Amino acid sequence: MLVSLTVGKVDAGVAVLLTEDKRLIEFPSILLPPDISSGSIVDITVARNHASENAAANAFKALQSQIYSTFGTRSPSAPVLRCRNATQTSVVLEWDPIDLATASLRSLSLYRNGSKAGSIPRPTEMQSTKISGLAVDTEYVFHLVLRTSAGTYSSERLAVRTHKMTELSGITITPGPMPAALKESLMQTAQRIGAKVIDTVRIDTTHFVCTEGRGPQWEKAVEMNVPVVVPDWVKGCEREGRIVGVRQYYINADPRLRQVGPNAQQQQQQQLQAHQQQQQQQQQNPPMASPRTEVTPPTPEQI
């Protein structure tokens, strides 16, 4: 279609064109011939470009398909939480690497018994955490909440019960410098009580066992506040059939303060009670006085 327009005014960027019915049309002056001035008549041909329309439509559909295949086919996955180890007062939890798909990470939080216990630092790098200060022989329920730009995803609830004082399977020891024979004996003791032995200090290490405080693993244990004890501590747990205190078994502790033998504290109490009973019996039944022999001199006979 051909349209004839009269140039009314030409500015630096816009030209005002007049139609036959005296309507004003603003038109880019850069598209007009260079010798145009007011009063000039220009012919503009207007036609629909079907080829360009089809090309633009095909390009838009391709862009939509690309966006869908990149961002629409996969969504973030819910975290998978599990228990690595449990002791009398602590729990070590671990999970698979978080799958964000194409979403952006907002936060990863740990909940205990329905209440937020804290946020996981560096969630794209960390895959485990340790919760301490728990009650003995108590059940707790944990779950993770992953917040992303694509929504919020929660893991399944995980019920974990802390161990009783007589449960020794939660002990996880890392052996340090010690004689070979003592290390072999330690391995056998750990196997008998059901404890786990690992070569390096990790988040689930409960005790570092050694006779000398040296080496990179010892330094790591000290840095992570892992108790450093002598092998007698493991043997003491086996004798007592329960978790014993570590204070007397530190490598720099006085060996005379350690309890030796099965149920040493109970034996001491029994001995003390027997001694007290013996003293009470002596007080109730005082010893009888020994017989005395008196010699009476003969009296003179009366005349």
Could you spell the SSE succession in H and E letters?
A: EEEEHEEEEEEEEEHEEHEHH
> In total, how many beta strands?
16
Gross morphology? rod-shaped
CATH superfamily of the largest domain: BRCT domain
Would you write up a description of this structure?
By secondary structure, the protein is of the alpha+beta class. The chain has three domains: 1-46, SH3 type barrels; 81-161, Immunoglobulins (Immunoglobulin-like, Sandwich), CATH 2.60.40.10; 172-257, BRCT domain (Rossmann fold), CATH 3.40.50. Helix content is 25%, strand content 27%. It is built from five helices and 16 strands. It has helices spanning 50-72, 180-193, 216-223, 232-240, 264-284; strands at 2-10, 14-18, 24-28, 41-45, 81-86, 91-95, 105-112, 115-119, 128-131, 139-148, 151-154, 158-161, 172-175, 196-197, 207-209, 228-229. Strands 7, 8, 10, 11 and 12 form a five-stranded antiparallel beta sheet that branches. The longest helix has 23 residues, at 50-72. It starts with a strand and ends in a 19-residue tail after the last helix.
What key phrases describe this protein's structure?
303 residues; 3 domains; alpha+beta; rod-shaped; four-stranded antiparallel beta sheet; Immunoglobulin-like; SH3 type barrels; Rossmann fold; single chain; 16 strands
Concise overview:
One of its GO terms (biological process) is Golgi to plasma membrane transport. By secondary structure, the protein is an alpha+beta fold.
